[in-house]
Design goal:
GO terms for molecular function: S-adenosylmethionine-dependent methyltransferase activity. The chain is built from eight helices and ten strands. The protein is α/β, with parallel strands linked by helices. α5 crosses α8.
Length: about 240
């Protein structure tokens, strides 16, 4: 079941003593992960750089659909920007719920996929009514023209503080951010106009009211202040890390 929509992958309910598995970390592993599982060690088609392993992390070559661990081997599982690639989402997620009782899933939303499309992504996703809804691109006639990826992935994140604030105050705009416990409510290619309309019809009031939660002016102000603080905190950390390296 869904627990919450975290502000980011760094705001997860992971206790200090948790043993954490990460499936498909690629070149961007979560610093809290203890064990990393990667299917493609030598091919970067599904990621933007070579596999990276941080200090005190162990890397295992395996498939997400067939994890080499016994039931409940971990306390928490992280899966960030992987689900949109997989061949069998049901089996992939069932393996994560088998080896741990809780975890976090992050993927591009359909908005993020349209703005920053990737050929390696087989699926487009949204969270609707606390469910992760997935459609194959071929099922909905997905079109990736024009590709605005450089603008939203490279240029704005490195040049615009305003865009960074937008990312943090509206994290669900381009990503699905889903923390779960016990199981994940997953719908694959549902044959229902209710769900398909969110993926195929022009974005309107119904879409926005369903996908984005309304906030008061006071809450908006708090989020904006938090966003500015978070930006400077991570900028400071990055600078320190560069100095140390």
């Amino acid at each position: 079941m869904k627990v919450c929509n975290p502000k980011s992958r760094y705001h997860l309910s992971i206790k200090r003593n948790y043993k954490v598995l990460e499936v498909g970390p690629g070149n961007y592993p979560h610093p809290r992960s203890n064990v990393l599982v990667e299917k493609f060690l030598d091919i970067n088609y599904h990621r933007s750089g070579d596999v990276r392993v941080l200090k005190n992390q162990r890397l295992i070559a395996a498939e997400g659909e067939d994890l080499p661990f016994s039931d409940n081997s971990f306390d928490y599982t992280i899966c960030s920007h992987v689900l949109e690639h997989v061949e069998d989402p049901v089996r992939f997620i069932s393996e994560q719920t088998r080896v741990s009782p809780r975890g976090y899933i992050e993927t591009p939303s359909i908005i993020g996929e349209y703005l920053m499309p990737k050929e390696s992504h087989k699926w487009v996703l949204l969270e609707i009514d606390d469910k992760i809804v997935m459609y194959e691109k071929s099922k909905i006639g997905f079109n990736t023209c024009p590709d605005l990826g450089y603008l939203f992935l490279d240029y704005l994140p490195t040049t615009s503080i305003g865009y960074k604030i937008l990312q943090r105050t509206n994290f669900g705009l381009t990503n699905v951010s889903y923390e779960w416990r016990e199981n994940v409510d997953l719908l694959i290619n549902p044959d229902s106009s209710y769900y398909m309309d969110f993926f195929t019809k022009p974005v309107g009031e119904i879409f926005c009211n369903k996908i984005f939660s309304k906030r008061s002016i006071a809450d908006e102000a708090k989020m904006a202040l938090w966003a500015v603080s978070d930006i400077f905190k991570y900028a400071f950390k990055s600078k320190i890390l560069k100095i140390k390296s």
